Amino acid sequence: MRVETVGREDSRLGDGGTPADRVAAQAYSSFTKATVVTVPKETQAAVTTVTVTGPGEGKIAYGHLQIRAEQFAEAVVVIDHRGSGTIADNVEIVVGDGAKLTVVSVHDWADDTVQVSSHLAKLGRDATLKHHLVALGGDLVRVSPTVVYAGPGGDAELNGLYFADAGQHIELRTFADHAQPNCRSNVVYKGALQGEDARSVWIGDVLIRAAAEGTETFELNRNLVLTEGARADSVPNLEIETGEIAGAGHASATGRFDDEQLFYLQARGIPEGAARRLVVRGFFHELLMKIDIPEIRERLEAAIEAELEAVGV
C-alpha cells in the first residue's frame, strides 16, 4: 500500500467524482495538499489508518483524501477524525474492477467541532465497497456519502451509526446513483438521540436510471429517541426510471424504548437502568458486528456505553 502527499496538479484527483454542493466545491477549490492512499492491483493489504486532525478551536481547514483500490485489490482503510475546529473536506473512494474495499470513517470530534464532508465513491465492474460511517462527537457534523457505478456488477453496502447529545446536530445524506445494469446497493443507518435539542437528520436517496436494469437496492433508517427534547428526521427517497429491476425498497422508523422489551428484561430481575442499556446495545449490535476490526468495534462499544451513562440511561 502506498501513501502519498500530492499537490492539486495530480491528475488522479477527481477520479472519484466532482463536488455536488457549495461546501464541497469550496473545499475542493481551497485545499493545498491531498493525501492519496493506493492499494496496488491484485494486492491484499493490511488494515491502514488515516488520522484526520482538526485545525484547532476557532480555526478553519480544508482537506482532501483519495483512497484507490486498483484492479482485484483488497483492503481495509480506517479514517479516524479527531480534534476540534471547523473543517470542510472531500474523500474520494475509487474501487477498481473486481476490487474489494472496506472504508470505516469514525467522526469522534471534540464538542466544538463543525465538519461538512463529502464521500464520493466510484465502483468499477464487479467491484465491492463496504462503507461504515460512525458519527459520535462534534457540534455540527454533516457527511454525505455518494456511490456511482462505472461498470456493471458493482456492490455497495453503506452502514451508519450515530449518537447525538444535547445541542448536537448530526446530518447524514446517502445517495446511490445506479446508472449501470446488475448493480446492488444496501443502506442501513441507525441512530440514538438524548438530551435537549439533540438533532439528527438522515436523507437517503436512490436513483435507478433507465439503463440500470437488474438493479437491487434497499435503504433502511432506524432512530431511537432516549429522552425528551430530542428530534430525529428521516427522509428516504427512491426514484426509478426502469421497470426491469431485481428489487427496490425503503423503510424508516423513529420511536422510543420498546416497553415490551423493557418489561421482559425487568421481569427476569434486571434493573430498569441496566435493561435500558441492553436495549440500546441490541439496537446497535447489527451494525457493530459488521465492522470486522476488533479494536474499532471495542472502542465504539465503550463510547456508546459512556454516552448512556452520561444521562443515566
Give an overview in words.
Residues 56-283 form the SUF system FeS cluster assembly SufBD core domain. 17% of the residues lie in helices and 49% in strands. It has 313 residues and is an alpha/beta fold. The chain has one domain (2-257). The strands form two sheets. It has a nine-stranded mixed sheet with strand order 1-2-4-6-8-10-12-14-16, with helices on one face. The protein has an eight-stranded parallel sheet with strand order 3-5-7-9-11-13-15-17, with helices on one face. The radius of gyration is 20 Å and the shape is globular.
Element layout with pairings:
Blueprint: E1 2-7, H1 22-30, E2 33-39, E3 48-53, E4 60-69, E5 74-82, E6 86-95, E7 100-107, E8 114-123, E9 128-135, E10 140-149, E11 155-164, E12 169-178, E13 184-193, E14 199-208, E15 216-225, E16 231-240, E17 247-255, H2 259-266, H3 272-289, H4 294-310
Protein name: Iron-regulated ABC transporter permease protein SufD
InterPro entries: Fe-S_cluster_assembly_SufBD (IPR055346), SUF_FeS_clus_asmbl_SufBD_core (IPR000825), SUF_FeS_clus_asmbl_SufBD_sf (IPR037284), SUF_FeS_clus_asmbl_SufD (IPR011542)
Pfam families: SUFBD_core
